[in-house]
Specification:
There is one protein chain. This protein is an alpha/beta fold and 306 residues long. Helices cover 40% and strands 15% of the residues. The protein has ten helices and ten strands. The strands form two sheets. An eight-stranded mixed β-sheet has the order 3-2-1-4-8-6-9-7, with helices on both faces. Strands 5-10 form a two-stranded antiparallel ribbon.
Length: 306
């Protein structure tokens, strides 16, 4: 039996249409049940765009069945995903999760269903990644295990999701300095700080807690060398991507994935390739800030001189 697809959406109609079109191109779409969780508007000015999305949802075809769940009040992305994934994974025992900015390869569903079936009884494997950024993959197999999850197109099982906790204060006591460094890609991407930001109420997210859950359980995440998901929400249209960047843009896998690892161990080559990627992003980011600072300084100097 194919795994149910759970899709979360809000008010980005054009993004959502691209995502639906990409899923429909998968051969297993017609065999899959699609659950769509539509969050309600947070502000009155977003009402029309949310209603436009909901009108479109009623026109979608191409799946075994379609279930539309419309929230009556705004839950926010984190609570929507936590409650929605819990509901469906508890019913089916496994789930494929997408958001309204995750365009997929025509072979995404093949990959996800094969992996969810293959590793369903192996407790060490807790998560299936659909995305990976552009890394140096010369030494990496077609698919491999890492301890880091990505929330852009993923899958899991009830046995894994049952371990999920969103308890920031508890996590502070469970991570030592060495663990934090590893969790933060050798210090190149400060993921752990999101836990503190959630604790202080500065942000409200879920993915970092799922990542921490997997990390503490010494779980593994199956990952493809060539991504099967492209996030089109890095155009500044999303809640958590308020700036535009091309650093995460990838080319989607256009062939079926047939090779899966049998040995349950993390690929150190893949981990260090990801460390190198985040290091390059970090340098580019600060270079961008430095450039902006210089321009602003020149601007103010020009004003003073004028």
């Amino acid at each position: 039996m194919t795994s149910p697809i759970v899709l979360f959406c809000y008010n980005r109609l054009s993004h959502l249409q691209e995502v639906i079109n990409s899923i429909q191109k998968n051969s297993l779409a017609e065999e899959s049940e699609l659950y769509i969780f539509s969050d309600s508007f947070k502000h009155e000015e977003e009402k029309d765009t949310v209603l436009a999305v909901r009108k479109y949802l009623k026109t979608i075809t191409g799946f075994k069945s379609i279930h539309i769940i419309e929230a009556q009040s705004n839950k926010g992305l984190a609570q929507s995903i936590i409650s929605g994934v819990s509901e469906i994974v508890n019913k089916y025992g496994k789930v494929i999760v997408l958001e309204d900015d995750c365009v997929v390869s025509p072979y995404f569903l093949d990959y996800m269903n094969t992996a969810l079936d293959k590793y369903q009884n192996d407790d060490t494997v807790m998560h299936i990644n659909g995305y990976i950024p552009n890394i140096n993959s010369a030494k990496i197999h077609d698919t491999f295990f890492i301890s880091q999850m990505c929330c852009w197109g993923w899958g899991t099982w009830k046995r894994s999701w049952d371990c999920f906790e969103k308890k920031p204060k508890k996590l502070f006591s469970l991570f030592d300095k060495k663990m934090k460094k590893r969790f933060n890609f050798n210090g190149q991407y400060d993921l752990f700080s999101q836990i503190s930001q959630n604790d202080k109420g500065k942000i409200d997210t879920w993915a970092v807690f799922w990542a921490a859950t997997i990390f503490l359980k010494k779980g593994l995440c199956l990952t493809p060398k060539i991504p099967l998901v492209q996030n089109i929400g890095t155009d500044s249209s999303g809640t958590h991507f308020s700036f535009s960047t091309q650093k995460y843009v990838v080319d989607l896998h256009q062939e079926p994935i047939t090779s899966f690892p049998e040995k349950f161990e993390e690929s150190e080559d893949a981990y260090h390739a990801l460390v190198a990627f985040y290091k390059s992003i970090k340098l580019t980011f600060w270079g961008h800030i430095k450039s902006k600072t210089k321009k602003l300084f020149s601007y103010f100097v020009a004003i003073v001189r004028h």
